[in-house]
Amino acid sequence: MRNRMECADDIPRQSVTESIFSRNTGQFFSQMTQSWQHLPALRTLRIFEAAARHLNYTRAALELHLTHGAVSHQIQALETQLKLRLFERNGRQTQLTDAGQQLVLGVRESLDALSTAIGKVRERESSHVLTVSVTPSFASAWLVERLGGFLQRHAEIQLNLQSNTTLANFRTDNVDVAIRYGAGVWANTLSEKLLDDELFPVMSPRLRRGKLPRTPAQLAQLPLIISANKLWSTWFASVGLDYTEQRNSLQFDDAELALQAAIQGQGVALGRSSLVAAKLRAGTLVAPFRERIPSRYAYYLVYTETSRRKAAFQAFREWLLAELISAPPLAPPPPPNDP
């Protein structure tokens, strides 16, 4: 007897407690699982809730994209399973029985709790996913080459980049934040200016075998590339010249394509400082004149109130603003005018 007691004393108290807790927990969940087996299907309860809310099978069917017969069949099956009448006719009207009124309250509470739990799980999962919509020109000229630094700093964030020329629908396209070029006003959004722009002529240093124009007036002798902004007339007016649109000129609806055409020696483009800075530093484009005009548009960070609450958005915004501050100047100082 003594040996048996010694052996019992040798068993750690924690192990005994854990064993009892594990056994009780297992019994609890086993009983719960058995009780769940008798519950109606979730789809059936959803149909019952809609029918109870409308007190009309036809309207419930329209809401759930079902037929009247399908709703009626599910209600009959539910009443058979529960051995209860849930609806009754009072003349031409359908009413809930006492059992139906009691049941619908519990069903709604349970559906709300389930919806809330699923929403929290989805929110937790999506909190580490950030979808960014950006114009193709800004993505290729500035953003993409810097994204590696953001991902290294925030390895927990999954970044999805969408390239498009129009502002995405934040709700239907599941976009969290956009980088847009415009006046800064978009419906149902918040916007924050990122950087201003200047416009000036740029061309390949190999254009006309390196015989580049020495004065703005000589640009009229060169093919001018037209992009979406169509501001050549404004730039020529700033230097006191008239502008006549050339026949057979190259026209692009994308600013980056216009710059690529200029790099290939197809003509002279009116470049934006935000898009040509790296190309000027690399020497693939040159800007021979001092004359520049401010753009009436700028780049903006566009988002919604919902997006602003996401930690991933805050991380991206802080990184983006820091990159803009530390980045080299958008364009080198303008060259001096020739005497």
UniProtKB/TrEMBL annotation:
| Species lineage | Bacteria, Pseudomonadati, Pseudomonadota, Gammaproteobacteria, Lysobacterales
Return one GO MF term: DNA-binding transcription factor activity
BP terms from Gene Ontology: DNA-templated transcription
What name does UniProt use for this protein?
Transcriptional regulator GcvA
The HTH lysR-type domain, residue ranges:
40-97
Name the CDD domains on file: PBP2_GcdR_TrpI_HvrB_AmpR_like
Protein family according to the UniProt entry: Belongs to the LysR transcriptional regulatory family.
Name of the gene this protein is made from: gcvA
Question: Coiled-coil regions in this chain?
Answer: none
The answer on whether this UniProt entry bears the keyword DNA-binding reads yes
Which keywords label this protein? DNA-binding, Transcription, Transcription regulation
Matching entries from InterPro entries are given as:
LysR-type_TF_proteobact-type, LysR_HTH_N, LysR_subst-bd, WH-like_DNA-bd_sf, WH_DNA-bd_sf
